[in-house]
Amino acid sequence: MDRREKRQAQYVLANMVVDLVRSRSLKAGHHLTEQWLAQELSVSRTPVRAALRLLADAGLVESRARQGFFLAKDADEIDRSQSLTVPSTPEQDLYASVVRDRISGGLPDSMTQTEFARRYAVNRIVLLRVLSRMADEGLIARNKGQGWTFQPGLDSARALRASYDFRVTLEPAGLLLASFFADPVVLNRLRSDHETVLAAPSPPPPGILFELDAAFHETLASFSGNAYFVQAVQQQNRLRRLLEYQGYENRHRIRIWIAEHLAVLEALANGDRQQAARRLTAHLENALSASPSPDGTVEPIAVPQPNGRGSTRALGCNPVPDVHAGAGS
After folding, report:
1. Which of 41, 124, 169, 271 has a Cα-to-Cα distance from 287 of 20 to 30 A?
2. If one looks up domain 90-150 in CATH, what number appears?
3. pLDDT of 133-187, one tens digit each?
4. What confidence tens digit (pLDDT) does each residue in 71-117 have?
């Protein structure tokens, strides 16, 4: 693990400490001992000490000479917006650059490893990690000879429309299957992950946002109890990964789709699967209307309504503001 990766791990651990403090409803002045935190979080004391220093810099804990670290405020005064922004790693930076360049048409269908290294001025280890990750995600494949080839994605308006038609037909139906069961523990964890992003002062990197988005849809599919639903949703997520990346810098749209996800989760928590299915349908239709075109333009794609007219408003949902990037679907 290099220096930037260690630094990132410290920020992640610091946020885990905050979550632990909030879950235990600790009061200001509580002594946060390194040994207790290390046991609770299953890590060694050294990274805990580094995480506590970060929290002290943020004003969430107080460092007292020869005494240790103490909580600076009651847990109920610490909201999710005070979570620390986790810095990116070299791999994340390179991944984002490759994705942006591929979407914009700046990269050919096939490239050698040397061409990648020359273009992005990165070392071989970082490059191989990124290419391996992209291969695992179905974005790129190693050629039989030398080089790598980008895999087909949603690269036309027609393909995008077809993808959403398929998903609107499939995903809400999965919520209504007789075999459907929403695990309350998984449901709460998914809701907590969304609330954390919604309350953060700035959005996390695009890769994390996509994983949250994909996890939402794949988790709902897994609740269906039908492996074919899960496989279909996973395939759609692989196809749309590149296209979604170009819109994740739109903070307003990010907040919209997270709120729509939370509305679906709320209906499921209340045991109202019919309402959850309607909300999921509305969310997917809103996402299509807000999707950037595969060619990079930002013209909204009309969503057909029962009255036969195209609209960017989905039934059962409030109108989506005029934002056409970062569909989050």
Report:
1. 271
2. 1.10.10.10
3. 888 877 889 998 889 998 876 555 677 788 899 999 999 999 999 999 999 999 9
4. 999 988 887 667 787 777 888 889 888 988 887 788 999 999 999 99
Determine whether domain 157-311 maps to CATH 1.20.120.530. yes
The residues spanned by each domain of the chain are: 3-82, 90-150, 157-311
Can you give the pTM of this predicted structure? 0.59
Q: What is the pLDDT of residue 297?
A: 47
Instruction: Confirm whether 3-82 and 157-311 share one CATH topology.
Output: no
User: What pLDDT, in 10s, does the model give residues 204-218?
Assistant: 777 778 889 999 999
